[in-house]
């Protein structure tokens, strides 16, 4: 079983973010940890702390909650690790930095964490504009489990995205500037749900339209009839789009819209009576906030499906998920209020676990946790699954792009009263031999 190429998902996130942002805010340039209250003394006792950094666009043009999931999941993991004794008695010291969603802010965060604080590694990066990626790579600082919002994780060595990469990572994106994504999601709905007609909804905005074209290519490669609907970004007429989808008998709906646009589309679908097998969304929208976000569209809400490359955070029958949920639930109780759970939190938790496994390997014998040692662990060319939380991740650096691959996908469906319910059995069984399609990042 091979790990899927998820580079195409980066274009989707970029499309949503560009569509939702008119300009990039500056945000805070000081590490967030400088403003946080210091807690009680940690349970760890031996040796100097091991310092890691987390860069997040916590304040950005698309809202404060858009990027914080990976950071929150990683911090929860490190808090739990420290409470249990840390890394052989050494506390993991987490330095966080908000880049404000801008390239200037991102470079400032890289300078503060990599050059000033001299962190051993970056973990669970989630940046709207990862402008400092080349500086991280030149410093040979391993960046572990970051979200591929742009092309950085398919461009630079020493950067290890949460979904892996087959690209050479020689300073140019992908292969000669092209990235590749598979059609496994479309194959899944065709094989498992019998879907044949799919609607693709986008804004009349460049990034949104570009992603819609990529989705359309993938659907057509899998034999779907495709209905394209484009709405005005400033004054979208979702009702007209929904009515046309109903008229043309769409089984599935894919989109390149932001969360607000998705909610409006769902409301319009309910209003015109457009019933579909699945309204398919992506991992960034795989959250427990669906009930609130889609409160005015109950029929469409219960047709929401999400796809990704990590184990459903609702699968508490799995021991690694139970541990994640226990930590996140404890954090919510400490905060005195409920907090939305998300798949990105789980992936941030997995990223922190990944670093911890790398650091633990460095401490065997008389070794120490260094950038070079952690990087060597990451670059072993061995699949990593974070105790089953991730579909096995690889970094193969192939000279030529793949024409086709056996890829797998994690699938869940929203159900009121139950949350996200896993579909199709275990994610390691939802596997397909599919073509890989090229696109420009």
UniProtKB/TrEMBL annotation:
Residues 49-417 form the Leucine-binding protein domain. Transmembrane segments: none annotated. Residues 1-24 form the signal peptide. Keywords: Signal. Pfam families: Peripla_BP_6 (PF13458). CDD domains: PBP1_ABC_ligand_binding-like (cd06341). Belongs to the leucine-binding protein family. This is Amino acid ABC transporter substrate-binding protein. It comes from Streptomyces alboniger.
């Amino acid at each position: 079983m091979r790990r899927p190429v998820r580079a195409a998902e980066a274009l989707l996130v970029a499309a949503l973010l560009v569509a939702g942002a008119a300009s990039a805010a500056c945000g805070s340039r000081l590490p967030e940890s400088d403003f946080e209250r210091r807690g009680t003394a940690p349970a760890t006792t031996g040796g100097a702390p091991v310092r890691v950094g987390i860069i997040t666009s916590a304040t950005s043009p698309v809202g404060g909650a858009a990027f914080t999931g990976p950071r929150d999941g990683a911090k929860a993991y490190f808090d739990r690790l420290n409470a249990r004794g840390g890394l052989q008695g050494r506390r993991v010291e987490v330095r966080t930095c908000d880049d404000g969603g801008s390239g200037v802010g991102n470079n400032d965060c890289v300078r503060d964490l990599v050059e000033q604080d001299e962190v051993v590694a970056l973990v669970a990066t989630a940046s709207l504009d990862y402008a400092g990626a080349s500086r991280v790579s030149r410093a040979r600082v391993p960046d572990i489990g970051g979200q591929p919002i742009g092309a950085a994780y398919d461009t630079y060595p020493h950067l290890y995205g949460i979904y892996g990469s087959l690209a050479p990572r020689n300073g140019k994106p992908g292969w000669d500037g092209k990235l590749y994504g598979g059609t496994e999601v479309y194959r899944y709905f065709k094989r498992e749900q019998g879907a044949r007609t799919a609607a693709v909804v986008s804004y009349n905005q460049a990034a949104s339209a570009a992603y819609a074209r990529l989705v359309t290519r993938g659907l057509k490669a899998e034999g779907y009839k495709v209905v394209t609907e484009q709405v005005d970004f400033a004054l979208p007429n979702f009702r007209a789009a929904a009515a046309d989808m109903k008229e043309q008998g769409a089984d599935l709906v894919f989109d390149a819209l932001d969360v607000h646009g998705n909610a409006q589309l769902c409301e319009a679908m309910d209003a015109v009576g457009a019933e579909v097998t699945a309204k398919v969304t992506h991992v960034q929208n795989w959250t427990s906030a669906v009930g609130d976000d889609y409160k005015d569209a109950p029929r469409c809400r219960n047709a929401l499906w999400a796809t990704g490359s990590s184990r459903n955070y609702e699968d508490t029958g799995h021991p690694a998920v139970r541990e994640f949920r226990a930590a996140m639930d404890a954090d919510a109780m400490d905060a005195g209020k409920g907090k939305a759970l998300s798949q990105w939190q789980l992936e941030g938790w997995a990223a922190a676990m990944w670093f911890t496994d790398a650091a633990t390997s460095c401490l065997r014998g008389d070794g120490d946790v260094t950038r070079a040692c952690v990087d060597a662990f990451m670059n072993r060319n061995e699949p990593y699954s974070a105790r089953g939380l991730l579909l096995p991740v690889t970094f193969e650096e192939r000279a030529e792009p793949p024409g086709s691959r056996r890829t797998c996908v994690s699938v869940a469906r929203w159900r009121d009263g139950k949350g996200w319910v896993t579909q199709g059995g275990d994610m390691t069984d939802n596997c397909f031999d599919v073509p890989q399609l090229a696109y420009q990042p």
